[in-house]
Amino acid sequence: MAGNAVIVKTPETSPLSGTLMGEICREVLPPGLVNIVHGSGLPTGDALVRHPKIWRIGFTGSVQTGLAIQRSAAEAAVKHVSLELGGKNAMIVCADADPATVAAEAVKGMNFAWAGQSCGSNSRLLLHESLYDEVVARVVAQVSAIRVGDALDPASQMGPVNSAGHYQRVLSFVESARQDGAKLLTDGERPSGADFRRGYWLQPTVYGDVTMNMHVAREEIFGPILSILKWRTQEEAIAMANATEYGLVSGVWTHDLKVAMSFVRALQAGFVYVNTTARHFVGTPFGGWKNSGLGREECLGELLSYTQNKVIHIFV
Amino acid sequence: MSGKFGDRLMYIDGQFVSGSDGQWIDSVNPGTEEVHSRVPVGTVSDVNRAVNAAEAAQPAWAAISIWERRDVLRKLGAAMRARAAEVLPLEAADTGNTIGSLGRDVEAAANYLDFFPAWAPKSRVTVCLPPETACTSRSASLTAWWLASCLSIIRSCLQQHIWPRY
After folding, report:
1. N or C: where does chain A have the smaller number of CB atoms within 10 Å of the terminal CB?
2. Would you call the peptide bond into A43 cis, given omega within 30 degrees of 0 as the criterion?
3. How far, in Å, CA of A140 to CA of A129, rounded?
4. Of residues B16, B58, B72, nearest to A5 (C-beta)
């Protein structure tokens, strides 16, 4: 819309749908307006980021890669970089919330359909102590019932983790949770059976009694692992929610509007959901605070970020 | 050819091409570890070709009216929807995301190709003149009108132009 030409680099572990996008662009757009390249960060991504004729870079991915893009871009020129990075999103449940609703939404908000590999997954569930036991029991029952299987089977509710490298990283959190003393509430294992002998499989996994000094509480796993924490006072819940390098989305569950708004003001996140889980609304700015990102997407601001201002002052 | 989806290429300057140094990356089904396709590694020289193609295509694209760009992008959204059935099995096999959840993703992507073009009528060139010049503003866009109002005591002309980044 802004009149730019675009070069897309696909992720090296899942490039195929990008190749279909090329066919779709060829049907509709003039040659050269959209170009699609494949490859890893080195050499392909780095060559794009450092190219002297590219002034605007939008990236979705990890904090580590986001930092590398900022460094490379800064070495080449003064470039406009926007980043949509990770999250360790807290879903905070107050004492007055309905345990059945909250448990169902907590499971839904983990995005197990993508094996939890979503920047907006509520991978930390912060429960008030008064309903901790009841919600935990319901969450564990629902997570254990998730049907793991072939991603191409419409009946499957969760598939494998995306790549070999990422799978090893996800498994390292299972090990760190064991070492840190988190309470394994369900699974942590590879599913059994002939269908799962090969591939990057992990059953949906839930840890309870998690505390903020554990890796599974502080670091984004980007996998099918939910950490559940317990809180007593509002101050404690806010401190826990804000005690990570991330600040993408956050959620609060309460029927008390004053309580909800005091959480909303205190939470360090680009998007706060009250009595719902992360979802995208067309036109509302999506993006994170702190290391979760830079700039906002899916809104008018994003469109304008692909333009430049020019003010002309004529004396008559 | 490798795997059931075959070799998939890069799309540069309207053509499907392999990489300049002949290197490939295997694409793996994460549920089976089966190599089901491969894609070329884009080299520095491939990236340069893509940038040159983009640079050559951009002026004509920016020169057509924003209304025409709106129409083209809406066609692109419709073309995406029309091929959703092809995207879904490819994406599910390549990412491991379940096919039941992916339909919404294609629809969401296409929705943005409707959303951004909807801003076309609000993105015109703006010329705002102070009242004492007895000229009227041609159009007001976004915040530019407010900016111009604040500056109206200055006998001047302020123009804000939506300008591409290239």
Report:
1. C
2. yes
3. 17
4. B58
CB B69 within 8 A of CB A1: yes
Q: Please state, in angstroms and rounded to a whole number, the distance separating the CA atoms of residues B148 and B156.
A: 10
Contact of B18 with chain A, judged by CB distance below 8 Å, is answered with: no
CA dihedral A188, A192, A197, A199 (to 10 degrees): -40
Identify the bridge partners of residue B158 per DSSP, sorted by sequence position: A313, B128
DSSP B122: G
**Cα–Cα–Cα angle for A264, A266, A272, rounded to 5 degrees:** 35
Q: Residue B88 is which amino acid?
A: L
User: Which tokens belong to A48?
Assistant: 């794009």
Q: Which of A56, A164, A300 sits opposite B165 (nearest CB)?
A: A56
Return the number of other C-beta atoms located less than 10 Å from residue A75's C-beta: 9
Regarding an ipTM greater than 0.85, the answer is yes
Q: A74 CA to chain B: closest CA distance, Å?
A: 17
| Interatomic CA distance for residues A137 and A126, integer angstroms | 14
A8 beta partners: A36
Burial bucket for residue A180 (CB in 10 Å: 0-12, 13-18, 19+): middle
Instruction: Over range A230-241, report the average pLDDT.
Output: 98
List the end-to-end C-alpha distance of chain A, in Å, as a whole number.
Answer: 33
B13 touches chain A (CB under 8 A): yes
pLDDT digits (tens, 9 = 90+) for B88-125: 999 999 999 999 999 888 898 999 999 999 888 776 55
Reported as type and span, the H/E element at residue B86 is helix B84-95
Q: Measured on CA atoms in the order A205, A65, A264, A120, is the torsion positive or negative?
A: negative
List of residues 6+ apart from A120 with CB closer than 8 A: A87, A89, A109, A111, A248, A249, A278
Active site residue A299: no
